[in-house]
## 1
Amino acid sequence: MDPLNAAPMPTILVVDDTVSNLTLLTDLLKPIYRVKPATNGATALKIAQSDDPPDLILLDIMMPEMSGYDVCKQLKIDPKTRDIPVIFLSSMSASEDEEFGRLIGALDYITKPCKPDIVLAHVAHYLKSKSPSGLPRA
């Protein structure tokens, strides 16, 4: 394949205020995707609203100042970011938490501690379903 004509790697925005979780997910995804890490909601929104938005967001729920729920709500009301798929990552495992996440616009909910193969499968699934050709969106 000609590297000049190759489609760029999909970009994943990983948002988690716990640095060890952020590092783990970044290291897991980096061989396959372009990864943009953020440690808080405000930074996540800034990255998502940039001229180079992510193709998918992995979003922690329990963060100081701005929760993942608040970030998701902001993403879904902004026409520029509302179509970016969001997958929540959380140690909260009550069905009400998952239902609320879906109600405000998240596509999926993965409980922590995350199993690497589960994260990779969910990311690949949502990137594939986002593209009409069946390939991850460039």
## 2
Amino acid sequence: MSPETFLVTGYAGFLLVAAVVLEWLSAHTHRRALRYRTAGFTYHEQHDHWECPQGEQLWPHEFDHERRLVRYRAKAHICNGCPVKDACTDSDQGRQIVRPLDPWPHSEAGRFHRGLSLMLVALALFVLVVGVARNHASADAGVQFVLLVLALAVGRWLWRDFRAHPAGFPAPTPGTGLRMTATGADGRAEPR
């Protein structure tokens, strides 16, 4: 194998590993952040509410259609009288928990990181195509071709969720008492 082929395949391999590691780290960080924000609270999917460590319930308060998340809030008078309020929240309107409706790859941060990973894969593909065009020896082209197929597989895996963005999904129907928000001309959320 020529030194140029060795450098091309090494660099392309590094880019592919970086893309996969970036994807894994961003998803891992997202999961950790969600666990941190809801530590001690239990989500009951059947009734769509959260339960605090003191046994009180946080019910859906607002559905933000643009950001695709639901805000759950406890009753203010209950939180304000709670003995552990200082350790839980500083809000006088009750504890609030935000739950995203979409899985990690479809969130704004997820799409941003997925886009970065896809750019790394595209750069790896470009480097490999140029490498194959410059080095026609069968051993060199064979190694680069194998890495090219791997890069295409990684790119297809990343592209699958990137193009299936939930913007085309039907909007969930909010339950009774939920406020719908939209963004006004000034960029701030306003009730509908």
## 3
Amino acid sequence: MDKDKFIDLHPRLYHMAEAGSWDSVMRHGLLSTSAALDLMQVAGAARVALERRHRPVSVEIAKKGVGRIVLRDQKPMPEDRLRTALAGTGNTDAWYAFLNGRVFFWANRGRVDVLLNARSYRHTTHDVLTINTRKLVDSYADRILLCHMNSGNTFPYPHKRDMGIFKTIATYEVRRNGNPLKPVAELTIDYSVPDLMDFVENVTQSGR
């Protein structure tokens, strides 16, 4: 897909974070789980459990002098359902590790609203960040992968997936008119976006 075409279709991106995460974002930027574990110097078995295994609940990690970060739960991706979705094309540990090594943005607000109203999140409050797509893409184009599905969700059906669902902007399949063959659901960036504040246009609180 042409970069400008993607930006025209998705002039804003969205990120949903735990309520109260804004202070951490202002200090450290937006961190993947792996980046947060590095920052907090989490290692050994504790790191393996958080980075390469299913995380059924949100987990707070902290370090004196650094602060606290909440690692979001992975409720929609239990190991048994993920194994079915991978259908022999990869192991669950590697999939968890790959997703935990990336920062995720939704390509449209509708996806955020669906998640905010999901059973697991509808009674909690979240910070919703609105991001300027052009500025972000111009700065991180070589670290971006797009995905047509919610790569961390296996409900209501564990749709088949493998690493091939992630594409660079340039290799994302399009129709003759340049529009994507499948609508983009996620934009992901490797490891972290330390200068996220340069791209944030708005922050709102949502949830009940």
